[in-house]
Amino acid sequence: MSAYERQMSGGTAPRRVFSLALLSALLCSTALVGASGNAAAFEIFGIKLWGSSEDEDADIVDPLRYAVTIEAPDADEDLAEKLENASALKDDEERPVSGSLGLLAKARADRDQLVAALYADARYEGVVTITIEGKPLDDLPPDAEFSGPQPIPVVINIATGPKFTLGDIRLEGDAAGLAGADFGLIAGGDAGSGAVLKAEASIVRALKEEGRPLAKVTDREIVADHATSTLDVTLTVAAGPVAGYGDTTVEGTEKVDRDFTEYMTGLKRGRQYSPEEIDEARDRLLGLEVFNSVTLKEADGLDADGNIPIGVEVSERKPRYFGLGGTFSNTEGLGLEGYWGHRNLFGRAEKLRIEGEISGIGSNELTELNYNAGIMFEKPGMVGPASKFFAGVSTVLEHPDAYDNFSVKGNTGLSYELDKQQTVSAEVALDYSKITDSFGKHTYLIASVPLRYVYDNRDNRLNPTTGFRALAYAEPSYDILNGAAFVKLRGEGSAYQSLYAASKFVLAERVAIGSIIGAGLQDVLADRRFYSGGGGSVRGYAYQGIGPKDAHGEPIGGLSFFETSVEMRIAITDTIGVVPFVDAGTVSTKQFPDFSDIQVGAGVGLRYITPFGPLRIDAAVPLNRGPDDPHFGIYAGIGQAF
Questions:
Q1: Helix (H, G, I), strand (E, B), or coil: what is residue 11?
Q2: Please, are residues 178 and 199 in contact by the beta-carbon 8 Å criterion?
Q3: What Å distances lie between residue 103 and 56, 85, 112, 498, CA to CA?
Q4: What is the pLDDT of residues 47-103, one digit of tens each?
Q5: Is residue 18 within 8 Å of residue 222, measured between CB atoms?
Q6: For residues 511-527, b (16+ Cβ closer than 10 Å) or e, as one string?
Q7: What's the DSSP call for residue 273?
Q8: Helix axes 99-120 and 193-208, enclosed angle (nearest 10)
Q9: Verdict on whether the full-model pTM lies above 0.90
Q10: Taking the mean position of all CA atoms in its chain, how far away is CA 635?
């Protein structure tokens, strides 16, 4: 056994003291190496569209190829997967290293990463042995040359050893009055290095939540008792004094106003320090969409007034952007959209966005395509950092089966974040419309006051795996030309639950209900009635195909609706997923949904995960198909269905 192996196995001593700082560094190095790969070729759905391995290897001096075998006979399936994922040698096996020195350096780094993975699983007696061309890594000279036939054989042998549990737990210093169990430190509990580090962070966070910005762990003693396979943990913590916010200084701004950036943090001098407010300030600055990165740091000490200065470091994004997008369905045709925007119009994160859309291509006649164009403006921080002023003008010319509509709408309003998860908004809008539907031709001038409340604690807005989103919407409206008054009400909720580690199975559920009260069906604009069916609601049916119809079989909309959907999002790989789903919905001319007339569609979808959201393709069939319903529907777009 080499000196390195003896150090890792602890075979020469029954108890061993660990440095959690070392464990933390090893864990961080694993994460950094795992995220450092660059791809010169382009692949989608596992298919390489351009580029080649030769292109990727062109910048490598003296390329040397190797083949890795990982042997971990004592590891269960879960640990074996973790070890393989921690191995950069395995992850980069298709990409050569730079000569023999490159292979040696990669092997040594890999050993540290694998040891960190063992520690994370509480395997403190684990031994990692790496051989290259049959020779142990520690026996190879620093200038070893591997001249055998390529790929060079590399064997990683891992003896995992027993899994440790926590033994004696002691919190000392200002943490002496805290209970270790509250932070996951329980005798007989998880002794993985990650669990211990998480407990440390939680203890410090708990003290900081008392308004103590200088709280920190001042000493730690981690002792592994190999005779009992337990890990004794002693943590000494200094809480530091309660303090308020000092000066907030901003660095890194160029085109964004520095004083505005400081204002948007919302950290008022003298108010008691709160780590939650620091997190909210960071999220608020990122939400301005003018910064690539935002870092908030407390100073190492208090100022002369006993307050903690806060430093803000930012890096700016390019202010202008543009893009193209599209959707497709065999029942709704092709839709194309384009947009141009400016994120920082006057230097204080004001947003201007101009967009246009054409839809119905392939399903409508050329003279009956749908057009939508709009200009939107936003100004954050109008009445406090949590507020946002918005205004917009849009025009629509559309020809769905239910009606023909030309309208011009203007709106202005204010939204306010009550907290990190809750947002309210109110606006005033004026909408001039000319609509032809089953009830004839009508002209409307609608003044309305849309009110909205949103609760959203999803872990990811683009591809959620846990959390809940709820929407409550009310829109009192008055038709100035015709004298009709009505209120449109809508509620919607969606929930997400991860059923397996690493979110390989995510159950997603959605329910929505709405009602229009105060007016009859003919008095409500056709484009404000409720409809259901199509890619955004009940898949398998035509767009607006669910609900009451006129004598010609065309939808007329309703005064109420109900929809629900259930999806099981299954991750096949890190980028590819399969989604079986069931949708259901109903539309009624009454003010309350008719649950006796539910239409149901079911199908399966394919997802390809990208940084800007999942690419989605869904195929569905109507389960209680009517004579006018399609036999199936195919839908493509960007983002999850809900």
A1: coil
A2: no
A3: 18, 18, 15, 39
A4: 343 444 445 555 777 889 999 999 999 999 899 999 999 999 999 999 999 999 999
A5: yes
A6: ebbbbbebbebebbbbb
A7: P
A8: 70
A9: no
A10: 23
